[in-house]
Amino acid sequence: MTDTGTGMDKETLRRIYDPFFTTKERGKGTGLGLAAVYGIVTNHHGHVFCESAPGKGTAFTILFPAVGALPEMPPATLSTTPVVQGGTERILVVDDDDNVLRWEMLVLSRKGYATVTASTGEDAIRRFAEDAPDLVILDLNMPGMGGYRCFQELRRMEPSINIIIASGYSSEVLLRDLLDQGAQAVISKPFTEEGLLLQTREVLDRAQTRR
Question: Which of 91, 135, 139, 205 is the most exposed place for a label (fewest CB within 10 A)?
Fold first, then answer.
């Protein structure tokens, strides 16, 4: 992929894959786009190359390993899926994608949870102050203050808050940092209904045990 933009100098080029590094104005960029690309490509054993110079635009080349013959899949077998336990706790779901937000709210509500939603970090902070939820399911890559700063502000407001990070961003360094800072769990997008419910119940049960 190439463009004919302003290009980048060597110092900027050296940092383009760093999480949260951006040359855009505050509130105009999250600094997660290229970091997410790098994480996805390398997790699939690929490579990303970038060539850029001021005034000459930028070119990205992404290489993935060739796929050989597909392995034979064993015949499908019937399995019994355990019934996932629900609850009555209040959960704040934060995501800037309306479709994801509605789906998560529907899945959780069907299991008895009281759900409130927010589509930005700023809105999440306001809703948290108003509703005092038992759990927050927080997307990282959002406009405005973004999920990372929202996470830090929620932790400042309530250090014992229960937060599940829900994100397609795959940097192990960032996710480990969030867990070290107090996030209870990480669930990677796209996740299943069962995966969401199991992770939700596990975090809430652990919170009950800590009390």
Answer: 205
**Whether 125 contacts 132, CB under 8 Å:** no
Is the CB of residue 147 less than 8 Å from the CB of residue 119?
no
Integer-rounded Cα radius of gyration of the chain: 20
State which amino acid sits at residue 17.
Answer: Y
Instruction: Name the pairing type of β-strands 58-63 and 47-52.
Output: antiparallel
What is the full DSSP assignment across 139-202? ES--STTHHHHHHHHHHHH-TT--EEEEES---HHHHHHHHHHT--EEEESS--HHHHHHHHHH
Peptide bond into 190 cis (omega under 30): yes
pLDDT tens, residue by residue, 139-149:
988 888 888 89
pLDDT tens-digit readout, 7-19? 998 888 888 887 7
3-class secondary structure, 68:
coil
Q: Which domains does the chain have, with CATH numbers?
A: 10-63 (3.30.565.10), 90-210 (3.40.50.2300)
φ and ψ of 134, to 5 deg = -80, -20
